[in-house]
Amino acid sequence: MMRKSVLIQLKMERARGRLNELTKEYNGFLHSEVIKQSMILDKLITQFNHKEETKNKADG
Question: Which GO biological process entries does UniProt record here (predicted)?
Answer without folding.
Answer: regulation of sporulation
